[in-house]
User: Fold this.
Amino acid sequence: MAKFVLIGSGLAGGLLAAYLGRRGNDVDLYERRADPREGNIVGGRSINLALSTRGIHALEQIGIADEVMRHAIPMRGRMIHPAGAGSGTIFAPYDVDPNKHINSIGRAALNTTVIEAAQRYPNVRVHFNHRCTDIDLTEAVAHLETENGQVIVRADTVIGVDGAFSAVRQSMQLKIDNFEYDESYLAHGYKELTIPPAPDGSWQMEKEALHIWPRKSFMMIALPNPDGSFTCTLFWEFEGPRSFATTKSDPDVRRFFDEEFPDAVPLMPTLLEDFKNNATGSLVTIRCAPWSYKDKVALVGDAAHAVVPFYGQGMNAAFEDCVVLDECLAEFPQDRQRAFAKYFARRKENADALADLAVENFIEMRDKTASRAFRAKKKLDHLLEAALPGIYLPLYTMVTFTRIPYAQAACRARLQDRIVYGSLAIVVLILALLTFRFIAH
Ligand SMILES: Cc1cc2nc3c(=O)[nH]c(=O)nc-3n(C[C@H](O)[C@H](O)[C@H](O)COP(=O)(O)OP(=O)(O)OC[C@H]3O[C@@H](n4cnc5c(N)ncnc54)[C@H](O)[C@@H]3O)c2cc1C
Assistant:
């Protein structure tokens, strides 16, 4: 069995360590942060995430899905909060099947569960407070910084599971000729805010929904937490006449929220403190190639393909990477280089497709969800899905509730749209002709 060094024990790092440990490999997982079980968690990343079919499948394979789902809150659809005081809310279910829902899960609880799943294997060891600074690609050697100085660790393979700003990927970029790298930032940043529980500990809005305040060029969303609170995320332009850059003083922040989110403000007693104290995060898409170097180094999760969060799929895709990599390593047990090549071939086009879908879904969430036409299209989608089971699947359903590869889902959705809109156009044309003939008589 091989010796793996994994860099990064975020969401995918812990899960991958469990997968590799289950196959009997010797695994050392190095994380720059302190142990999340000691209260040091995530630092500025989303507090909760939407977990769906792909992620749940990956957790099931390692036997921890039930444990994770005990902490999850089902979200059965979008609760739209339209602009304008007193306009009420509109609920739009995610699927025609009411049993299909996404799940709000705390990052801290999930991170702890995957790390503990890995630690159940005696051949997996986790080391916190070890920051990777460099990788020697040809020797599969990782250089790490600790409180007590530099540590050098050798392995058969080093895997970078160290997130969007991966140090492992950076070493590959510096040392591999023609390494392809592309990062693109949205003009929007995000800030997390809180709606605390009601005095009796209950949720102050509908609990089983993902709340959206769509405002055309920006939006706020809120996901429920098990303690009765909601974590809100404001996605807003960094720059511009009305933006993070120009809205800093308490009165300005208050005015902006009163104008845009009047129903949320009374539920947000710590709004001004949260706005001031919580960092403004950036939203990046990262594409790179290749994802491996010989049989020595590979990338998994955000390190290989960070996407913006608007399809709620970054973590789900990172978990799916773990499943696919495990399958490829099992297929070529004596040839990790081939396994990595197969893993890349199976994942790259899907990661690229997801990156595009995620950016497109931002426009859908912040702008289109508020419109009647969009809701009519969703209803038509659900009608067709019910009428043509297994034949017509809306894009959101394919991405969120199936494991159809992302690229295939995007392609199939385009084809379906062409057929549906083409047919609708023909029906409208026939009706128009019939009406014309009727009038002419
Ligand atoms: C606002 C927001 C909302 C999101 N919502 C969702 C959602 O609803 N659903 C969803 O599926 N995805 C969501 N995502 C995406 C999701 O967070 C990521 O896709 C997921 O965390 C990727 O997992 P990962 O393990 O690859 O990286 P990470 O979770 O980022 O973990 C990387 C780990 O590596 C460690 N590390 C980094 N550098 C080093 C180093 N040099 N040495 C050692 N350790 C290092 C980090 O400390 C971290 O623990 C969201 C992201 C954001 C920003």
Notes: The chain has a mean pLDDT of 94.
